Amino acid sequence: MARMSATETPQAAPRILSGMQPTSDSLHLGNYLGALVNWVKLQDEFDAYYFVADLHALTVPTDPAVLRDRTRKTAAQFIAGGVDPERSALFCQSHVTEHAELGWVMNCLTGFGEASRMTQFKDKTAKGQNANVGLFTYPMLMAADILMYDAAYVPVGEDQRQHLEITRDLAERFNTRFGEGGLVVPEPYIVKGSAKIQDLQDPTSKMSKTGSSPKGLIDLMQDPAKIAKNIRSAVTDTEAEVRYDVENKPGVSNLLVIHSVLSGTRIEELERAFAGRGYGDLKKEVADVVVDALTPFQKRMAELLDDPAELDRILASGADRARVVAQATMARVRDLVGLVPAAR
Ligand code: TYM
């Protein structure tokens, strides 16, 4: 079985794919630095597919109007952050119905025990979240998202590593069972340092919506004065030396990473520049760098949200591009697993 059908256009560059859940009105700095910044860089080099994981968001009960609003806002933030919909296919997961179909095939390849060992499911249920079966099968839908596009790389933050591992296992299992050349085994693209932006108040935990306190989080859509205030009150340590040392100085190291990615200055250079200066100076400069980066972002967001019809048009055109690949993959998968083609 050939990997590519004759009607499919040859691929110009290797593919990459990634997605984010629309679980909030605003992405946070972890989403931005851990993933979005790399999406933007990689779109020059790769055939990129970026999507809003709205089906995954259904695993947490959300008001339908809120979900719709957040889905559009999440897509708009991809664009405001630099994803170019002319170059990258930008779409909603639910617009390409093949994702759910391949998700089912992945469910049927996954052992019950294997799924039970996924840490995100274990953590959420341990915290008392009332889990549904969708949350349990979440990683298999994610595997489908990735394998659908023959993605060579998947740019994500550190917290997605286990999901990437099960995706690779499932691709290999599929190929062993149904023949080599069925699915591409993807590589994670996880950048050391920025792949785990930490909570400002609890710098040993990752920044997240459900973190220690609202002061630990930087939302991309937050008021700049509040962003600066949260950075100024970031937890550091009792020394005074600005040095990158994740183990002993997690708070300072986190601030250095944030500065470095946004200003494009190497960490060693920052260490030199802050030698003999206190944490107050570092925090002030980090706040300036973050606010400088987010001011044009917020301005672009306002323009995008002002024209929802244009945003929907972009998403529709991205889904058209994604569907071409998804339909070819599903035709191949259906054939390999033994489903009878529908007569035309
Ligand atoms: P989500 O929506 O939780 O997060 C989106 C992206 O942000 C990264 N991230 C972080 N990076 C660094 N520091 C942090 N503190 C931080 N917090 C979040 C995440 O690693 C992610 O890259 N399961 C995925 C969505 C998804 C997906 C996919 C991703 C669905 N299908 C297919 C890639 C490929 C998720 O919930 O990400």
From TrEMBL:
Lineage, highest ranks first: Bacteria, Bacillati, Actinomycetota, Actinomycetes, Micrococcales
One GO process term, biological-process aspect: tryptophanyl-tRNA aminoacylation
Keywords: Aminoacyl-tRNA synthetase, ATP-binding, Cytoplasm, Ligase, Nucleotide-binding, Protein biosynthesis
List of residues binding ATP: 21-23, 30-31, 157-159, 197
Entry GO CC: cytosol
Subunit field text: Homodimer.
Catalysis: reaction(s): tRNA(Trp) + L-tryptophan + ATP = L-tryptophyl-tRNA(Trp) + AMP + diphosphate + H(+)
Enzyme Commission designation: 6.1.1.2
Family the entry assigns: Belongs to the class-I aminoacyl-tRNA synthetase family.
Identification of the protein by name: Tryptophan--tRNA ligase
Molecular function GO terms recorded: ATP binding; tryptophan-tRNA ligase activity
Location(s) in or outside the cell: Cytoplasm
Positions annotated to bind L-tryptophan: 145
Coiled coil: none
Function description: Catalyzes the attachment of tryptophan to tRNA(Trp).
